[in-house]
Every structure is written in structure tokens, then in C-alpha cells.
Amino acid sequence: MSVLGKAMPLVAALVVLWAGPALAELKAGDSGAGVRQMQDRLHELGYFVGARGGTYGPLTVQAVHALQKAAGIERTGVYDRRTRQAARRGTLPRPLRLPGRQVQVDLRRQLLMVTQNGQVRLVVNASTGSYGTPTPRGTFRVTRQIDGIRRAELGSLYRPKYFVGGIAVHGSPSIPPYPASHGCVRVANAAMDHLWRDRRLPVGGRIVVF
Predict the structure, then answer these.
(1) Helices 58-71 and 33-45, axial angle in degrees (round to 10)
(2) 148: closest CA among 137, 136, 161, 158?
(3) Fewest Cβ atoms nearer than 10 Å: which of 28, 69, 111, 191?
């Protein structure tokens, strides 16, 4: 056997060891360089992932859910082979082609997007009204907001921004990957803080639900 032939198994082993953290299936509770690389990629694409410290926490699960929804694949919250491929392709949800800046809520995909002239600037995982209490479709404006917790009969709304009657975009600790609210658009509390901090959805701002 040639020297090159003897060296090939060693080279292959080194490649596997080097690529392992980035290529292994990642899931909640994992940490390390592979998780940080994945978080950086999601952030680069525009998915809200929160702090990118290399720990696969609840906000990373939410970001992975959002990517899986955009790609039309199973919503597991696990960064598996198909999800990694979607990230490599740069998969983003398709918003409505509208001029100016607004928030769009895609009911079919269960995603909230901040868009500018039809281009996606931010993607946030969301859970909208369940089939018995659907979120209304249409074009609305934020009419009022509460910078705090609104305790209502059906539960607590974190920093809600109301756009039609008592229906709002608001933070919640529970964002399942399917419609589950009583009509509101739920996002993670940290995502709601981000929307407030960056004035992504001010009073008077447009929100389009489709």
C-alpha cells in the first residue's frame, strides 16, 4: 500500500472529528461550538434566536421551529439533517409583497415577520388563534399597547400591542408550534421585548394578517 493509501484513513478520521460538532444532530440542552455555529446562521438569516452563547435553550428551539415552519418540514425543534439543509439554503418565509414597513403574520406557517418593501427583516416563531378562535385576517393598525403584564380572564398578556379589539401581539411563556391562542398572536417574551426595543411595531404601525 502506498504512503498516500495508508494516510487516507487517518485523514478521514480527522475530518470526522473536526466536522463532528457542526454536523451532529442538535437538540435542546446541547451546548458548544456546533450550537453557536447554528445560532449564528439563524441570526444571519434573520430568525430571532436571542442570545447566541452556544447553549440550545428555549429561544433556540423557537428559532428552529420558525425555520422548520418556513421550510415546510416537521416542527420538531431539533436541528436535524433536513433543518440544517434548510439553513444552508437560506430558507425564509415568503411575505406579501407590500411597500413600506410592516409586521406580517402568516397564519398557515404560524410565523410573524417584520418586512420592508416585501423583504424579510426579522422572523419570529408565533402561535395564533386556534381553529375555534381564529386570529382575524386583514390589514390593521396597532391601536394601543401596555408596557407591562395585562392579566385577563383567559390568561396573562406580556407587553401586548392591540390591533383589533382585545386581540394583540403579545409575549407568552408558551409558544407551541401550532395554533393555540384565543385569537391573539403569541411570541416568546424575549421576542416581544425585541419588538418593543427596536420599535418594530409602534402604535399606528401596520400589521397584516394573512
Answers:
(1) 50
(2) 158
(3) 28
What 8-state DSSP symbol labels residue 58? H
pLDDT at 4 over 80: no
What are 190's three cell numbers?
Answer: 424575549
C-alpha cell at 5: 493509501
Residue 89 cell numbers, joined: 439554503
54-71 as b/e, with b when 16 or more CB fall inside 10 Å?
Answer: bbbbebbbbbbbbbbbbb
Cell numbers describing residue 139: 390589514
What SS3 class is residue 136? Answer: coil
Measured between its terminal Cα atoms, the distance across the chain in Å is 65
- Does the CA dihedral 83-173-44-20 come out positive or negative? negative
Coil/strand/helix, residue 106: strand
Task: List the one residue out of 65, 209, 35 whose CA is nearest residue 139.
Answer: 209
Residue 1 pLDDT > 60, yes or no?
no
CA distance 45 to 173: 24
Q: How far is Cα 69 from Cα 171, in angstroms, rounded to an integer?
A: 19
pLDDT score for 23: 67
Tell whether the model's pLDDT for residue 8 goes beyond 80. Answer: no
Residue 205 makes CB contacts below 8 A (sequence gap 6+) with 101, 102, 103, 141, 142
Q: Is 24 helix (H, G, I), strand (E, B) or coil?
A: coil
3-state secondary structure of 28: coil
Cα R_g (the chain), whole angstroms: 20
